[in-house]
Each structure stands twice: as structure tokens, then as C-alpha cells.
Design goal:
The structure is a homodimer.
Chain A: E1 2-3, E2 24-33, H1 46-65, E3 71-74, H2 80-88, E4 104-107, E5 113-117, E6 123-130, H3 134-149, E7 156-157, E8 161-162, E9 174-181, H4 183-188, H5 191-200, E10 203-206, E11 219-224, H6 232-260, H7 262-278, H8 284-299, H9 310-316, H10 319-326, H11 332-346
Parallel strand pairs in A: 1-3
Antiparallel strand pairs in A: 2-6, 2-9, 3-4, 4-5, 5-6, 7-8, 9-11, 10-11
């Protein structure tokens, strides 16, 4: 297991087509665990954090990474840019860099698997796959969880299940989420009904970067609210069923737009293309909106542009990836300007 | 003097560069007169309107048109499209088609001169020239006025001067106006100060289509408010002086934008170009905004696009010109769609 810099921009799951493409961008399973006998990270001192990090990384090294090329990064050894880039690549949550002491991430060989240490919980195991593959994503995370448990003692309560820093993760510690691209539901306004229905079904609806992030580029992240009193299999198959329904709604909305408002659809997609082709600078939010409408145009075949993966493009033009490209110290105007150039390259324009 | 259909889209003054180009688009002088012994048009019956029309057109025919190719149109013989097209070409005011009985227009051979009969006043003589040529425009109108007065008896009061339907035209009956393109003043926000200063100087500020029309495409029409108690020469030279000041303000704003916000200026111009290149439909108002920013980009040399006259393009993509092009019965969606095609042709894109 090598210890090196953060991984290259974008893992394979961003480039591959999975089931439900292009509406279902990815499936993610995340398991939260804590070590028995050590205070939870939020309450732990430096020494305990170091101890937890050592125990978890050693277990990962011995049982998960084996001889495969996992990369381990200690948060305090990474630049601010690199830390933010990991969040932009969906490896860590946006708040990961707020407190870096004792934190670490072990990242699998571009396969969407990672283990985060000392964020909200001692251990956060994550597996991301392209498209709707919730069961497979959960099994990939569960496999890591199972072998780690042979090395370390997890904090477990007979009645409640696995204990976590936040009560919202207690029990299974499992959060399954889907990243969905829903431009037609947003354009027709039917997204409101869909979000209400999801809320009633116990599903969180969030933006591209999870909790606390706004929706941009018509990309929605939906995840199970309940982690307690449900089996992992139920949580996973429930997400699968719900995603099928949302995807059906989006497909219906796209058909309706093509039938009743094709000129409007084409106009929006073409205008977005024109702006991307010509703009001299563009902010991240607007860029996501533009590529969302171009992608809708590609998907519905009103726009003669080569297909692309919206998440892969989104990561390539994200603020810290561009800042890193420009040399680490670039200002916002330089980043916005470079984004317009990058965008044209990524879309082959 | 031929009696035929309305003139071809756009007179020469829209295509030529005059002094102050490209900021001063055109100069217009308009003289209002009424015939002695006949009720003003607003109060006149059909018979009196016919009588006035006959007298004015005969005078025009004998003394103005002579053997040159003037076109005379009776309003009630024109289609709704043709009537509106004359307004779009700035020959008649927007309200001309509201009441057509007894009205007529005699239009000079693409030289910007015209005589309108039985609109608000019996006679409205107009001369438009490219750029800032207020004195020349007034002299062209005055020349027509002088020869007509040898044929007909004008309604004149020794104390007040020429009498008109609206008190706002009484005295000289002269309204001198300038069409100005002021995108930088609008972008920097300094247009507010300019408009206040103009109001204090007794100048009306209106949009592309005069009284009651909104500003579109950053095109402003400014004209003298006072027609009474001032000589024609004063009105004309005052307008010339005021236009020079506004043009200076716009030039300063452009220099400031180039110095302090060139990227922003380029970005706006390029985006507008991208939208024009790619849109599948566009409404008239938005199209004017787009060509205004493209023109600003051309003027400031940040955009490598061939120069064009914003008024000429504006007329070519105006609603009734496009409707006429499509066959007279086209709906709004068809017009908006054709406008996007026309726009690309007009700008050589």
C-alpha cells in the first residue's frame, strides 16, 4: 500500500456507463463505524485520533489493500487544494477539510472504494459505482467492513446496532445514495412533486455535494434517511425501487418535452452550447447548468454533440481542480476564465 | 410620383455611416403643420380628412416629388403588416395604424424624407439622416415645409406660431431627435445620471420606437421637449451640443470598461455571439439586446465580427418584417424561429 498524493481527477465510475445511464449517474454505499474503547472523533484528543488512525490504517493495509495499489493520505500532509479536490471527486464530504488533525483517507485503485478515518466517525467505508448498482455498491463496502471487523473491535450495542457520532447514522450505519440527473423534471416543474413524494418515502434529497449543498446542474443526490430498524438489504432494495420510480418520472418528462416543446428544448440546449463555445469565463454553478442542458440535448438527440459524462466534466471544471491546474494560487477570475477553456476541451468543442 | 406598396425594408440612412458613428445612429427632424380652415385630424370627419389628404398630397406631388420617385400609400389600402412595417422602419409612429381612415404617407426615394398626412396633425414632415446631422436633417425637412407652404395655407398664430393638435408641438412644430446606442453607459450604470441630466436640460429620453416605447438594445431616442419660444436654429444646435455630451459620456464609459473590465466586456460580447450563433428562436427584445452587445464588442474590437448597422439589423428582424417574409399569417413561434435564422444571415454568421 503506497502512501502518496491524492488520486488522479475522477475515478473510473465517473467515466463508465452503468444501468440507468444517463439518468442514474452513480450509486454509493457508505458505512459508518467507530472503534470500541476510544472516544468518537468529535470528542477525541490528538493522541486518541492518532491511535484510531493507526489502528484503522493498519487494518486497511493488512486486510483490504493487500498488494493492490491503494493510496493513503494524511489530511494534515495535504495542501488545501488537494483536500478540496478530494471533496470535488466525491471521496470526502465538503466539510472534511474543516478540521484536518488526525484525519486520513485510503483510496482504492480508481474503483470508487475508499476508507475515511476520523471524520465524523472513526471509520467511513465508501463504495461508488456507475449507474444504479446499489446492491453491488453495498456489497463492496460490506466486504471491506467485514474484513476490518476481524482486525478491530467496533462500537456495537445489542439493541441499537452500530453506534455513530450522529444519531442519524445509528444501527446499520448504512447510507445508500444515488446521483440522478433530472433536467426535464426541473424544466417542466414536476420536480416539486417528486421531491415531496421522496420526502414522504423517507428519502433525503440533496445537491451534487450532499448535505448542505445546493442543487446545481439539475443533479440530485437522494439517500435513505432511516439507518435503524431496517436491514441493509431492505435499505438497498428500497433505494433501487425508488430510483426506478424517479427515473420513470424523468423519462416521462423528457418524452413530454420532446412531444410538446421540442423547439423550446432544442433552443435551450443549443443556447447552452453557444454560451459554452463562446464564453470567456464562467462560474462553476453556471457551468453545471450549461452542461446539464447540453447533456439533455445529447440524450434526447436534439443536439449533435458527442456524449459525455456530466460528473466527469463537472469534476474537471470544479474550482480546486482548476486552481491546481493553474498552479495552486490562481484567483477566482483566472479560474473562471480557465473553466471556459477546459469546458470546451472536455466537450470536444 | 408613383402610388405603390410601402418602401423596401430600411432606407439608406440605416446603412450609411454618419458623423458620430457608431454611437449616433441617426438624426431626425420632424415638423408638424395643420391646414387653415379644416378641423385638426383628431376632430375631423371622413370628408374633411379626405379633403386634407387631397390638398397635402397634391402639394407634395407638385412641389416636392416633382419627377423623382416618391411613393404614396393610403393607410386604408395597406395591409396591417405593411402598416406596422412602416412603423418598424421609423417612417410612422407606432400608433399610426390605430386609426387608418384618411391617413397617408408619402415616402422619398430611400433618402429618409417623408410626409405623413392626417396622423395627429394634417402634415408631419420628416427627414432622417445617418449619424449626427441635425442641421442638415432640419434643412431637408424645412425645405419641404417651405415649398408646401406655397401651395397650402398653414394654421398659424401671430403670437404662438404654428398651431398643432398637441400643445407639446406648438410654435415651431419642430422636434429634433437623435437615436443613440449607449451600451457602455447602461452596463456601468451611469445611464441614470445621463438621463437625469438630459431631463434637466429639457430633453425627452425614449426607446427605439419613440413615445411610450421601452428601451431595447441599449438604443435611446432623445428629443427636444420645447418647441415654443425657441428658434429652430437654437433647437437644432442645442441638440447637437447635447448629443456631443452624451457621446462623450459613452466613449468614457467604453474606455473605462476596456481598462477595468475587459474580460467582462469580452465575455458579454462573446456570449451574445454564441447565443445568436446557436439559438433556435429568439424574441425581438432579446435579439436587440444580443446585437447591442455584439455591436459593442465589434466597436471595441474585442470581438472579431464584421461591422454592421444595429438599426438595419434591428429592422430586418422586427416582428412584422419577419411576418411579411414568412407570408403574412405566421404565428409568434414561427417569427421567433425565423428571427434566429435571419439574425445569423444579417451578421454573416
Amino acid at each position: 500500500m503506497a502512501r502518496s498524493k491524492a488520486s488522479a481527477p475522477g475515478a473510473d465510475w465517473m467515466r463508465e456507463h452503468g444501468p440507468g445511464y444517463p439518468l442514474v449517474l452513480s450509486s454509493r454505499a457508505r458505512i459508518a463505524r467507530n472503534l470500541e474503547g476510544l472516544p468518537f472523533p468529535i470528542a477525541a484528543g490528538e493522541e486518541d485520533l492518532e491511535k484510531a488512525r493507526g489502528m484503522v490504517l493498519e487494518a486497511v493495509s493488512r486486510r483490504v489493500a493487500e498488494d493492490r495499489d491503494w493510496e493513503v493520505s494524511f489530511a494534515e500532509e495535504l495542501s488545501r487544494n488537494r483536500l478540496e479536490m478530494m471533496a470535488e471527486e466525491h471521496i470526502t464530504p465538503a466539510a472534511f477539510s474543516d478540521r484536518i488533525g488526525g484525519r486520513a483517507v485510503a483510496i482504492g485503485p480508481n474503483d470508487g472504494r475508499s476508507v475515511m478515518v476520523n471524520e465524523e466517525d472513526h471509520v467511513r467505508i465508501q463504495a461508488i459505482l456507475p449507474g444504479a448498482q446499489f446492491m453491488k455498491a453495498w456489497k463492496a463496502a460490506d466486504e471491506i467492513d467485514t474484513v476490518l471487523e476481524t482486525e478491530v473491535q467496533y462500537c456495537y450495542d445489542q439493541r441499537l446496532g452500530y453506534l455513530t457520532s450522529s444519531p442519524s447514522n445509528i444501527g446499520t450505519g448504512l447510507r445508500v445514495s444515488a446521483m440522478l440527473h433530472l433536467p426535464a423534471l426541473v424544466t417542466t416543474g414536476d420536480i416539486g412533486k417528486t421531491i415531496s413524494a421522496l420526502a414522504q418515502a423517507g428519502i433525503y434529497v440533496r445537491g451534487l455535494y450532499g448535505e448542505g449543498s445546493g442543487v446545481a446542474g439539475n443533479i440530485f443526490q437522494i439517500s435513505n434517511r432511516q439507518t435503524l430498524g431496517r436491514t441493509e438489504e431492505f435499505i438497498v432494495s428500497n433505494m433501487d425501487m425508488i430510483v426506478r420510480q424517479v427515473v420513470d418520472n424523468e423519462r416521462t418528462a423528457r418524452k413530454m418535452m420532446l412531444r410538446e416543446a421540442e423547439l423550446d428544448l432544442a433552443d435551450r440546449a443549443y443556447r447552452s452550447l453557444g454560451v459554452v463555445e463562446r464564453c470567456r469565463r464562467v462560474c462553476y454553478y453556471e457551468a453545471l447548468e450549461l452542461i446539464s442542458l447540453i447533456k439533455l440535448g445529447v440524450d434526447t438527440e436534439v443536439l449533435p454533440v458527442s456524449d459525455f459524462n456530466i460528473l466527469e466534466v463537472g469534476v474537471a471544471i470544479s474550482p480546486y481542480h482548476l486552481r491546481e491546474f493553474l498552479g495552486g494560487e490562481a484567483g477566482e477570475e483566472d479560474v473562471d476564465r480557465e473553466r471556459s477553456v477546459h469546458l470546451r476541451k472536455m466537450l470536444d468543442l
